[in-house]
Amino acid sequence: MISADVRDAIHDLMADYCHYIDDDRLEDWLDFFTEDCVYKILSRENVENDLPLELLSCRNKNMLRDRILSLREANIYNIHFDKHILGAVRILAEENGAYRVQANYTVYQSNQDGVSELFNVGTYRDLIVFADGKPLFKEKIAIADTFGIPRLLSTPI
Amino acid sequence: MRNQSPVSWPAEDFSRVPFAAYCDPAIYEEEQERIFRGPTWNYLALEAELPQTGDFLTTKVGDTPVLVNRDADGNLHAFVNRCMHRGMLLCRERQGNTPNFICPYHQWTYDLQGQLRAVPFPRGVNGEGGLPDDFDRNNIKLHALQVESFKGVIFGTFSDHAEPLIDYLGPEVIYEIERLFHKPIHILGHQRQRIFGNWKLYNDNVRDPNHGGLLHMFHATFGLYRLSQKGGAKLDARGRHNITWNSLGTDDEKTTIEGYEGTKKVYKPKFSLNDMSMLQNRTEHPDDVTLVILSVFPNVVFQQISNSLCTRQIRSSGCDKMELYWTYFGYEDDDADMTQHRLDQANLVGPGGLISMEDGEAVELVQAAIQREKDKHAIVEIGGKGEIKTQKSLVTEVPIRGFYSYYCELMGFPVGTDAAAE
Known about the structure:
By secondary structure, chain A is α+β, with helices and mostly antiparallel strands. Chain A has helices at 4-22, 26-29, 44-48, 61-73, and strands at 33-43, 56-58, 81-86, 90-95, 98-110, 116-131, 134-144, 148-150.
C-alpha cells in the first residue's frame, strides 16, 4: 500500500514539472532531477519498431543542464508559450523505494499572435525516487504519439 | 522552353531566385511531373531497412505515396502505392513483411513483383456478375518505378529517360556515398519533422554552407563548424548536387574573432558545456573531414556530423509544407559504446537538434515573408557570381545557383529574359 503522503508528493512533482516548463522556469525545473537522471523524448514509431533512436536524450543531469544552456544561449527557435495538460497520474509499482509512474500529457504551443496549436501528445513513463523526503525524477521518459514534430523541438516536453 | 513563363529568372547565372517559385501552387503541380516524376533519381530508402524477402516500407516521392519492397529473389521494387482497381492506397502500414499485397477495399491481390494475382468472385455468383470475359489479370501490374541501389542506398525514377544512376550521381557524389557506406550499416531509427515551407527552401538551406556557421550558433560556439575552418562546397559537373564539408579544429582564433565581429550571440569563446562527451569526434576515416552534408537533387541529404550519420529525405506536401524524414544509422560492427556515442550525437541534429533545430524555423519564416513578394527575387551572390563551380571556402552559397540551373532546365523556364533584377 502506497501512503497518502507519497502519493501526494508524486502528484505534486508531476504537476510542478509541467508548470515550471510552462512558466519558463527551466533552471529551477532542473532541480526535479537526480544527478544520474535519464531524460528522453522518444518517438512512438521507434519504440514500436524496437529502434533505439531518441528524439532527444540526456543521460545525466549535466546533459540536461547543457540543453537548457543551449536553449538560453545558442538556439534560435519559434517564440512561443507552452501549456501542458497532464492526465491522471498512475503509480504502477514500487521497486525498492522507487516508483514507476505513468501519465498521459498534451502540450499546446501558442505563438505571438495568440494562436494555439496542439504540439505534442503522448505518455510519460517515469521512475521517481525520494531523497531526503523529496521526490525526484530518476527517469523522465516522454513517448510521443506526435512523432511528426511540427517545426522543431526546443523547450522540454 | 515555353513562350510564357509564370516566373522570371532575370539572371543567367541564377544569382536571382524568384519568390514565386516557392509560392505558386501551379508551379508546385508542375514540379511533381517535371522534377519528382521527371528524369531524376529520387532517394527511396536504405537496403538495411529491407533485409528480408517480403520486407516492405512506404515512402514518398515528392507527394506521391510509394511502396518499396524486396521479392523472393532478393530484388528491390518500387510501386506507386495505389491499387490499379479503384485507386485505394494499397499498403497502409509504414513497414512490415508480407507474402503479397492485398488491397483492403476489394481484396485485389498483388505479388511482390506487382503483378495482379487474384480478384475475389472473378466469375460472379451463379453466372451473374463478376469480371468480363476479356478481363486479363496478367495485364494488370502496379505502376512501377525503375529502381537501382548503390552501396545499399535505394533510388527510384518514374522516367524512362533518366540517365543511369551512376552517371546521374557523378564521381564526386559516388566518392562520398562510398565513403559513408564503406561497410555494412544498421538502422538506429527515424525522426520526422514537419516544416511549414516549400521543399526547395530546404534544398537551398543545405546548399548554403554560409548559414551553417551563422544561424547555427551551437555549431560556431563549440567549433564543430565555423566559417573560418578548412572546408568548402564540392559540386558535380552539372552543379545539381552539392557536398559541403569541413574539418574540425582547423581555424585560428584571430580569423574566427575577426570574421564573427559584429554578429550577435554567434561565437562565444568563453561558453562551454558541462558534458563535453557529445562533442567528441571519433575518427572513422583516413581523411580529416568531420562534417559532410551531401545533397543529391531533388530529395535527399546524406549527413556525417562527427559520428552522427543519417539520411534526410525531403517529402513535399503542397507548395508551403514538407516533411523531413530522418533515417539514422551506425555500422554493423559498432560496439555498444560506439552505438551510444552515435545516439548521443543524434542530439545534434533532427527536429530537436542542438545544431539543426533552427533550419525548420528559418524555412518557415522565409515562406511567411515572401507570400506577397512573388515578383521579387532572392539575392544569391555570396561566393561570387558567374560560373557555377566548386567552392574552396564555406562563405558561399554558389551551390544554390547550381540547384536552380538544373531545376530550370527540367522545368523548362527561360532564363535571363527579364531586363533587370530589382
